[in-house]
Specification:
The structure is a single chain. By secondary structure, this protein is of the alpha/beta class. It has ten helices and 13 strands. The chain has a five-stranded mixed β-barrel with strand order 1-2-3-5-4. Helix 4 packs parallel to helix 8. It is rod-shaped and about 200 Å long.
Length: 369
């Protein structure tokens, strides 16, 4: 009777048993988040990451691909992993990790320090890589949450300071799961536009270390550093420093400060233009006065030169007149001479002209002097 009441247990081969267990795990807990402390961390062939996740009572083995490790971790760091449970072919239970994030401000800071050292060694933060912002931007891309206060602050100050700007807005998450990936895709989109913006602005208001953690994501930091379009960041408060800030071409202290750095103050520009125009007018008037003076002086010099030439010419004419007068027969007659005209042969009648008379005479004799 007792044997009839015993439940018949299913019998599996080892492989079938592993498959059934994994099927049960996939159905019961397809994806879980587990908190714990990192231990026995190793990376093999720069491709595979192995570590143990433990607390004060238990431990579980974890595995993930190196490219999924977007935030550096080390032993002793408290983290939360997003993973699926699996029983391996060798009968070992493990978590296949999809994502890992440090927990707590201290561990987040330590993770950022490790990544900062790594990327700094690659030269991603070098000053020589930085590019200036456009002086008068007309086409600007904004990557932010349009519901965030930081976005509203930026747009308000931008409108007060400048105008005529075409904004390309990418509305993305600025914290939590998927935030970094959305920002990476937005940067790529801005770079691939047929008419790219003059600058990309990555902004987010203040928050806790956990809220700002996505701006220390390695993929996002590399996207900021690799953007063909200059990037301006305005993330958190003035005391907050993210790795995206270090990788950006220009870092603003806050979203509001980002608008101040990017857009000139139209009122100040008008004032400067008025001063320059006034200065230009003054210079032009001074130049006109100087040219008038030079023209007057040149005119006077030309008149003096021509006066000298006229005087010289007049003197020459007077001299020529005196010479002509010397050869004028009338002048000789006035001095008492007489002028004889006609054929000066013996027996010829000639005309004798004096100052007062005209006479006729016959030539009776002639001899050489």
């Amino acid at each position: 009777m007792g044997s009839q009441m015993m439940t018949v247990a299913p019998r599996f081969s080892v492989s079938d048993f592993v498959a059934v267990v994994n099927q049960v795990l996939e159905t019961a807990v397809p994806v879980v988040e587990v908190e714990g402390e990192i231990a026995e961390f190793t990376m093999r062939q720069q491709k595979f990451v192995f570590f143990t996740l433990r607390d004060h009572e238990s431990a579980v083995n974890c595995f993930m691909m190196a490219w999924q490790l977007r935030t550096p971790i080390e032993e002793g760091m408290r983290v939360v992993v997003r993973a699926s449970a699996k029983l391996t072919a060798k009968g070992k239970f493990s978590l296949t990790v999809q994502e890992i994030k440090p927990l707590g401000a201290g561990h987040l800071k330590r993770s950022a320090e490790l990544l900062k050292a790594k990327l700094a060694a690659e030269g991603l933060f070098d000053t020589e890589r930085k590019r200036p912002l456009p002086p008068y931007p007309a086409r600007v891309a904004i990557i932010s949450s349009t519901q965030a206060a930081g976005y509203a602050d930026f747009m308000k100050i931008a409108g007060e300071r400048w105008g005529g700007v075409q904004f390309i807005v990418a509305n993305v998450k600025v914290q939590g799961d998927g935030a970094a990936d959305q920002a990476v895709r937005a940067i790529a989109h801005c770079n691939q536009l047929a008419e790219p913006p003059e600058v990309i602005v990555l902004i987010r208001g203040g928050g806790s270390a956990e809220d700002l953690a996505s701006f220390n994501d390695e993929c996002l930091v590399r996207a900021v550093a690799g953007s063909r379009v200059p990037v301006l960041t305005g993330i958190g408060h003035e005391v907050d420093e993210s790795l995206c800030d270090l990788a950006a071409d220009v870092r603003a202290a806050t979203p509001s400060n980002a608008a101040q750095l990017l857009f000139p103050d139209k009122h100040e520009v008008r004032r400067q233009l008025a001063l320059r125009l006034g200065s230009v007018a003054e210079v032009a008037q001074q130049q006109i006065a100087e040219r008038r003076l030079r023209a007057t002086m040149s005119q006077q010099a030309a008149l003096e030169q021509w006066s000298q030439r006229v005087e010289i010419a007049m003197n020459a004419i007077l001299s020529q007149q005196r010479m002509v007068a010397e050869y004028d027969p009338e002048m000789a007659l006035r001095r008492g001479y007489a002028m004889i005209s006609g054929d000066c042969q013996i027996g010829s009648i000639v005309k004798i002209t004096t100052k007062d008379k005209i006479m006729k005479a016959r030539i009776e004799s002639s001899e050489k002097r």
